[in-house]
Amino acid sequence: MNTSTIVGRLTKEADLRYTSNGKAVANFTLASKRSFPNQNGEIESDFLPCVLWGKQAEALANYTRKGSLIYVTGEQRSRNYDDQQGNTRYVIETLVGSFELLETKEQFEKRNKNS
Asked: For the whole model, what pTM was predicted?
């Protein structure tokens, strides 16, 4: 079974685009803290690329900002493509099935005002 659950903060605004047939797609990266410390006792974060399609992609782009705390569920997908120099690049990303905001607009603004 290929199921992923991630809680993290957006590293930047979601990149919302539309396909040639008008379907919305949002690409974004979540910074998610690991649940255990490293050898130095520090908690590290992983930066996880995600993709979301359709109306949910538009909602994510409209209701989140850099630093928004969200919960996503989906599955891991791998793909490859050739870059502009002709090199094959391999990508593993989370194909998001659903997401939830984990803080209100007021909580987000208060946290950002105090930081």
From this structure: 0.86
Helix (H), strand (E) at residue 106: helix 105-114
Q: Which residues of the chain have pLDDT under 50?
A: none
CB contact burial 38-70 (16+ within 10 A = b; e otherwise) = eeeeeeeeeebebbbeeeebbebbeebeebbbb
The span from the CA of 32 to the CA of 30, in Å, is 6
- Residue 9 phi, psi dihedral angles, 5° rounding: -110, 140
Q: What was the pLDDT predicted at 42?
A: 94
